[in-house]
Amino acid sequence: MAMQEIGEFKYPNRKPIILLILAVVIGMLIVRWYKNDQKMASEGKTGRWSCALFKKHNKDVQPPAVTETKVVTVQVTNQPPVLVSLRQTANSTTNSMVIEISELEEKKALVQARKRCIEFLRQPMEPSIRDEVEKHAGRINIELVMTPAAMPEKQEYVVQPGDSLEKIARKFGTTVDLIQKSNLLSSHIIKLGDRLMVLSGKFAIKVSKSRNDMIVTLNEDFFLRYGVGTGKFGKTPVGSFVINDKIKEPVWWRPDGREIPYGNPENILGTRWMSIKASGSGTPDVKGYGIHGTWDDGSIGKAESAGCIRMRNADVEQLFVMVPMGTVVTITE
Fold it and tell me: Mind listing the pLDDT tens digit for each residue in 12-31?
């Protein structure tokens, strides 16, 4: 019997124990991975095992916020930042100049406006701003000179016995036309004791052949700029001259000696003529040159004349009133 019992003995089944151990190990690994994934998610990272198994947990974890990116356009220049800043400041300053002058002009504070124009024009500024200031200065100067308005370059004069407009003009170095116009006189007749505002400042004229323009100064300060025409092929002479004759409604003598009367379409001198003669050392003693009007405004700003300085008729008539005989005319290349 004993031997039979021994022969019938069977070893116990160990498979359930092994499966149990494997399940425990796998469970521990899963718990470890789960905790590690939680930690990485809380730090904003993506877990290595973020899959469908953990989606339920990770649905409450929000992705990092996406910040809006603004595109800033930067203008690149070749100028240093300091120079750009200085230029912007200068532009702001020069624009304020124009505004200040405009406001003074509107208030009819013309003497003060003119003073500011002169001060500003002595400073460096952008060409466009300079042009604007010069236009203001020209308008202001003309209004001051051509009307009874007071200005530092004018004197009040009481007519004395034996006076005439011609005598007073010679005394102050001005023109009869200007005294008459600026005092609103309808004729040359004046009476003893009349009070006149008379300009005593000194005009000068500067012509640039390359720019085809004329700058008029009063006591060496900017007064007005005119556009002009000059001689083709550089025929306009350069140097220092003076005005030595003035004629209204001039006759033109053709090169062949034929007289062309004023008003004839062939007469090229316009409404006024002012001849010039050399006065400076080294200036050629030329004949037949001068400043005159033109019927062809399209020639202004160009080198198309036979050598004289052309001006629009309205401009040369204005200049004719202001400048006396002996006014210095400087012509440069």
Answer: 555 667 777 777 778 777 76
Q: Which residue has the tokens 């050399």?
A: 278
C-alpha gyration radius of the chain: 47
Measured CA to CA, the distance from residue 328 to residue 185 in angstroms comes to 28
DSSP string, 185-201: -SSS---TT-EEEEE--
Query: SS3 for 156?
Result: strand
Residue 244 structure tokens: 């030595």
Q: Are residues 213 and 325 in the same domain?
A: yes
Amino acid making up residue 139:
R
Q: Tokens standing for 18?
A: 């092994």
Q: What is the pLDDT of residues 165-201, one digit of tens each?
A: 999 999 999 999 999 999 999 999 999 999 999 999 9
260 shares a domain with 213 = yes
In this structure, is residue 51 part of a structural domain? no
Do 166 and 126 lie in a common domain?
no
Phi and psi, residue 54, nearest 5°: -110, 5
Q: In what order do the strands lie in the sheet with 213-218?
A: 221-227, 213-218, 203-208, 328-332, 239-248, 272-278, 290-294, 309-312
